[in-house]
């Protein structure tokens, strides 16, 4: 007993002394880098003068502005960073590594004028050992050359997101002893866990530790693993000895442990253990290195019969995809925004995140572990491949980086590759060459699948495909991964909502036994746009509401659909897109600045474990409409809730008590002019939960002629069924209507629609130059004869809005429209006169000739109305048909 006590005291002393002072140190070197966006000769040289370069800090991208401006394209080329770093003389017995969390997409590091290493690929982490290049006790010049050019040998070749260039994640220096847990293996922790058996009684944990001995002598070591539970109590310590040969690296050392009565990890209870790996000199008991890694114990299965089963319980996986960009920052985000995004998903009630289309910042993975978000992680092979050995080699290398860097994450259950890889077929029309391409894609998929299963035999694999079942099946891709992913947009890019259900059932019939994940589904929402008559491709919140209401019901009804990821958690930059918000994909359920759209509120009511009452239309604060006989205007309001019933109050008066059906209670609200306060009260069994929304309603009198004192302004979009709120100008635009005496409206003509192979689009999706109010100019009335407003006498400012949407342009067709390509409807020439109250104010107006196509033009006039004449704007054709996009009338006096 005495000897045992002595051993315990000695062990405690060793842990107490050495665990308080870590033998490895890691710190960021993000600040004070000199930067230039060009290729500069000899920029790696120590004596190079960079005084005229700009000063930046990491995370940094050089495309934050030019990828969102009106000039097509963005800079894809070379940028240089330089910095001087002092490394003290007391570090000269250390191994020094530099870690990059991400740089897009080709990087070479120079230290004191010499190359320290190169890395290909913009989304995985990497490290270089720079020990031999460092000058201790002196300043060291670090120079980084980064290139985000298109490179046919590096995925992605193309994608529906912007390829921001730069060192856009953190950079660290790591100092370790020469004997260490290896830092060189795919920039990973050097410690890998497998849990081949987990149940409620025990968990079998296999640990592989990679060891490095940079010393010129053999050394006897003791490798110790301490398992610490979520209450910070050590539940198990395992220690073994190893003789480590001199000048060796990445030597595997295996240990097996059994944890009794384990705390299991799940979305509802994300219990995390910490595994602390320590290396001791067995002779001196000196602590040489230590590494901490998270450990989550769980078992799981994906089947078509029971869906996804975690720890013996069925669980539907519902969540989103996520892109790593933010309003005006591009992809160069601080940790806090990454953290915020995962919390947004958790607060919504989501339990599933597809890390698309590339590995993301380590803090994203850390938060998924901590909050219980199940993830799939993906390498960025998107749309197509290059049929050569270099592309294949880089793809497999990326897959291995992805797997080893997040190997120990309990949140990661799926490794993913090849998103929509047959979307952009390079040999369409050549059946023989196309078949060869299918074979090349299949061969690469087989290689990646084999490598992933070799490196990590426990997790599942996933290949996301777009809705062309026959191509993927013919190419053999539906049989390779363990799970098939489908990116489906029926009812958005074309077709009807119910075709989503039909596609799934038909595909499952042909792939019996293969679990499905709906890896993408969604509809674009410009949160400024609304409609009481929503249409496909109108970019309104209301159409997206209908879309998601249908899709989520179909998803929940099918067990073989084991999970689903909305596209996307957030709006994100996609430079080639035009649409209602140019250069942005608006399918996010939150905005670029993370304001929740209605879709987020709906899913929160469906899946949150909290009591939820959310009034829809949170981002529509200024409304308008035409007064009825009671001087009110009824418009629908949805309340998203998991209560049994919801009461809705308007300005303190109860206007309805509705049963909640499919997490929605619907009301017709009689808005009044001015301030309107809505209060929704969710009636739960034991309490009431409230939500409120303040709305500024700007009533349009039904009788303009007799509206003296009540009419101030009106903003109307021609050819449109949409409302448009401009928050920065605090204005609201309403849809057109036909003229009626005493009121206002158009005379003659028809609403412009954009013809496509899948029907008419209700608005143009082209980028309108010279404005940020694109939706105002993306609809029009063609062949209009007049626009009349029977306003009272007074002085008015009349603004006429024009943009020629049918002029010949060189706009690039987006492959992501998935067959929704426009049909040519260009107009050669259009000339017309515009008169206001019989005065010709715009003779022989030719918008396309004078200003070009898709360009915003606003003509403003002062108009004096007398003798009850109102305002009459007449359009007289000279060549072709006149048109008008929008009109604004403001009462001065």
Entry keywords:
893 residues; alpha+beta; 8-stranded parallel β-barrel; 7-stranded mixed β-sheet; globular; disordered N terminus
What's a concise summary of this model?
With 893 residues, the protein is an alpha+beta fold. Helices cover 15% and strands 38% of the residues.
Provide structural commentary:
The chain has 893 residues and is α+β, with helices and mostly antiparallel strands. The chain is 15% helix and 38% strand. The protein has 11 helices and 56 strands. The strands form 13 sheets. It has an 8-stranded parallel beta barrel with strand order 22-23-24-25-26-27-28-30, surrounded by 4 helices. A 7-stranded mixed beta sheet has the order 29-42-43-41-56-50-53. A 6-stranded antiparallel beta sheet has the order 3-2-4-9-6-7, with no helix packed on it. The longest helix has 25 residues. It starts with a helix and ends with a strand. The N terminus is likely disordered.
